């Protein structure tokens, strides 16, 4: 292995040896071969250690933590171990297409600041269908926090970022670590804080470069995350996002967590909070009402019908990823000038607010469906 690889790949995992082996192989199969792959095992896990040893690639190394600390802590540990100038994040239940790192390294050449965050579209694979996300890329001058949180329809959003799409300077990931203990909205929280720095911008590759596996019967630890903790988190990042984004998160994402309480007190509290600190639009109010009135499964069925998710898209072959939806842009930069103070910050969105995939061990993507 060269003394200094081009990219360090960090994969947190626990007790999912088959899944993490698949993820590791997709990283090792990149057309950019000058890499290191660091798997951070979140606690003692003999089976995962055996599975990784069988891969037998000198570019792979394993770091085993003495106890469970959660995905953000495992990612931070991997970043501290990284030797490359760039670090790419990969969740243990996802895969990369072979050109993922090559495309992002090339995209980095167009950066106008010193610390660009590189993301991409992805192929969302569910038992029902597979389709490309995000539906569109940012428009010129659009605040990225609003791109990633505001809705144009009642049952879905357009913007999106997910952990396995992210590559960033290792120095930036050390300067702005993931928040340990945060169980949901991990990408949103990290990107909001990172892009508030003046030397950071978000660049999104138009082509899908990641396979995002959503096994819908897989346990999702963050579904149990209390809405109160998420509201406290949102209030903490309020200086970094616009009032419109604040209202959208409160009335969509957090309301989806709180709606199962069927509590009129909670309903009024969230509505009042969104109006006090945010600037709701008509779609926010309609979304809020339908979240509280419609059962989640019915909302999901309506959403899927609207998005046409029952129509399967043909599988991608290496070098030939799925095309974005008709009319999608070819690529867009998130302007650094919209990323400070209350004028606009990047983040990530759950289109229905049911976020969080981590497996039983608490490691994995902050899933948005």
Question: Would you kindly provide a written description of the structure presented here, covering whatever features stand out?
Answer:
With 369 residues, this protein is α/β, with parallel strands linked by helices. The chain has twelve helices and ten strands. The longest helix has 16 residues, at 243-258.
**Which runs of at least 5 residues are low in confidence (pLDDT < 50)?**
219-224, 310-369
Strand order of the largest sheet: 3-2-1-4-8
SSE-based structural type? alpha/beta
Strand coverage percent: 15-25%
Query: What is the N-to-C order of secondary-structure elements (H for helix, E for strand)?
Result: EHEHEHEEHEEHEHHEHHHHHE
Total of DSSP H or I helical runs spanning 4+ residues: 12
Major sheet details: 5 strands, mixed
Give the number of DSSP strands: 10
If you average the pLDDT, what whole number results? 81
Portion of residues within helices: 25-40%
How far apart lie the N and C ends?
39 Å
List keywords for this structure.
369 residues; disordered C terminus; five-stranded mixed beta sheet; 10 strands; alpha/beta
SSE inventory with pairings:
Blueprint: E1 7-13, H1 17-28, E2 35-41, H2 46-53, E3 60-64, H3 71-81, E4 86-89, E5 94-96, H4 100-108, E6 115-125, E7 130-133, H5 144-147, E8 167-169, H6 170-175, H7 186-195, E9 200-213, H8 227-236, H9 243-258, H10 264-277, H11 282-293, H12 296-307, E10 331-334
Parallel strand pairs: 1-2, 1-4, 2-3, 6-9
Antiparallel strand pairs: 4-8, 5-9, 6-7, 9-10
């Amino acid at each position: 292995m060269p003394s200094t690889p081009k990219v360090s790949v960090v994969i947190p995992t626990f007790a999912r040896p088959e899944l993490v082996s698949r993820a590791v192989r997709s990283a090792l199969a990149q057309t950019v071969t000058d890499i290191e792959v660091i798997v951070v095992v979140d606690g003692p896990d003999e089976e995962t250690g055996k599975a990784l040893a069988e891969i037998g690639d000198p570019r792979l190394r394993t770091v085993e933590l003495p106890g469970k600390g959660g995905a953000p802590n495992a990612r931070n540990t991997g970043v501290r171990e990284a030797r490359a100038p760039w670090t790419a994040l990969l969740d243990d239940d996802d895969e990369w297409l072979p050109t993922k790192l090559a495309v992002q390294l090339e995209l980095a050449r167009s950066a106008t600041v010193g610390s660009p965050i590189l993301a991409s579209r992805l192929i969302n694979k569910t038992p029902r269908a597979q389709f490309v996300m995000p539906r569109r890329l940012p428009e010129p001058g659009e605040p990225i926090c609003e791109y990633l949180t505001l809705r144009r329809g009642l049952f879905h959003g357009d913007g999106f970022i997910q952990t396995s799409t992210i590559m960033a300077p290792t120095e930036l990931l050390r300067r702005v670590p993931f928040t340990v203990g945060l169980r949901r909205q991990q990408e949103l929280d990290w990107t909001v804080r990172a892009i508030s720095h003046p030397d950071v911008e978000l660049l999104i590759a138009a082509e899908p470069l990641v396979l995002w596996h959503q096994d819908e019967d897989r346990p999702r630890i963050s579904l149990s995350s209390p809405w109160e903790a998420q509201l406290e988190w949102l209030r903490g990042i309020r200086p970094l996002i616009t009032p419109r984004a604040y209202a959208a998160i409160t009335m969509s994402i957090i309301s989806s967590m709180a709606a199962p309480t069927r509590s009129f007190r909670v309903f009024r509290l969230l509505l009042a909070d969104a109006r006090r600190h945010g600037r709701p639009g008509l779609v926010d109010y309609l979304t809020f009402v339908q979240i509280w009135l419609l059962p989640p499964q019915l909302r999901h069925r309506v959403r899927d019908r609207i998005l046409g998710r029952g129509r399967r898209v043909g599988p991608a072959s290496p070098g030939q990823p799925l095309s974005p939806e008709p009319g999608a842009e070819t690529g867009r930069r998130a302007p650094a000038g919209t990323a400070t103070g209350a004028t606009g910050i990047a983040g990530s969105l759950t289109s229905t607010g049911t976020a969080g995939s981590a497996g039983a061990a608490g490691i994995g993507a902050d899933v948005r469906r």
